[in-house]
Amino acid sequence: MPQNHLRPLGKSGLLVSSLCLGTMNFGNDGFGCDEKTSINIIHAYLDGGHNFIDTANVYADTKSEAIIGKALKGKRDNVVIATKVGNPLGEGPFDAGASRKHIMKSCEDSLRRLATDYIDLYQLHRYDEVTPLEETLSTLNDLVRQGKIRHIGVSNWTASQLTEACLITAARGWEPVISLQPHYSILMRDIEVEILPVCRRFGVGVLPWSPLGGGMLSGKYRAGMEPSPGTRFAASVPFQQVWRARALNERNYKIVAVVEEEAQKLGLPTLLVALAWNLARPGVVAPIIGPKSEQQLTENLAALAVTLPDDSISRIDAASEPHLAYPHDFQRMVRQSSLADAPLSPSRR
């Protein structure tokens, strides 16, 4: 793999491939692939010179981690493994969240399933509103000191939550947060308003999940047509159904049409344009791809060779500009008006 496809993850010396292999599909009976196919995909990814694999303890009811453990037998040292903790694994009071009790047990369980002595990147899957943040961060710091995890990341956090965590770890001398895994694609650009500036401020690397918008930017879904069986939005899983209701709308179909138009001009598949756009965003380290076959893996990795022209990026950006709530909409209005260049009198301040 060319050296320029390795990027440091945040403010760390951890070098990762610029397309991360996501494994939520692995072992997933609803819309994923079986164990044999999953292992073949992992081996093909590694054989191509790539090194970054992302999973979570809840994926496929823990089967995803177990599959990765089998696939990496004899290959562990050259691979960066990222997993997550926090989403519910059961109905008990200690089966979810970011308490010391849950994190400690979950880490040991993930280590066992992954058949490894350490986890390179241990991520909080979501923010825990109940557990004091100091308890969570001190626990993660302890796990780093014990050698069970190497680095700390978070996922699906707000700008204020991430800011607080970065300030606490800096003040206490604890292991810093080096990555954020957010939902980010051409169809979902909300993080550009506040979250990406916070990541830049604190040197937090961004690992976008669903850079293809749940498959919409691969041409998988069409207006007026039901999702095909076996696809994410055809699954009966409650989260996928809620996501489907929010994703399959007129706005997104219009944006997809613009991306398809640019792809046709460039003679490229739509999904490559979408991935190349994501790869080039400021702060992004490694978008997470989710192939269900070796063919899909090959198609996704081809994005590493694509550089979009500025005019294509501009047209896509204009079509997909995120909605801004107050005060961001007001600030943008000021910037776009003559007031941005005019000095304010005391009466207008």
CATH topology: TIM Barrel
| Strand composition percent | 5-15%
The helix/strand order is EEEHEHEHEHEHEHEHHHEHHH
Q: What is the overall silhouette?
A: globular
Span from first to last CA? 55 Å
CATH class: Alpha Beta
Q: In angstroms, what is the radius of gyration? A: 21 Å
What does this structure look like?
The chain starts with 5 loop residues before the first strand and ends in a 13-residue tail after the last helix. The chain has one domain: NADP-dependent oxidoreductase domain (TIM Barrel). Helix 2 packs across helix 3, helix 8 crosses helix 9 and helix 8 packs antiparallel against helix 11. The protein has an 8-stranded parallel β-sheet, with helices on one face. A two-stranded antiparallel ribbon has the order 1-2. The chain is α/β, with parallel strands linked by helices and 349 residues long.
Question: How would you sum up this structure in a few lines?
Answer:
By secondary structure, the chain is of the alpha/beta class. It is built from twelve helices and ten strands. The chain has helices at residues 35-47, 63-71, 100-114, 133-145, 159-172, 195-202, 238-247, 250-266, 270-279, 294-301, 310-319, 328-336, and strands at 6-8, 15-17, 20-22, 52-54, 80-85, 119-124, 149-155, 177-181, 205-206, 288-289.
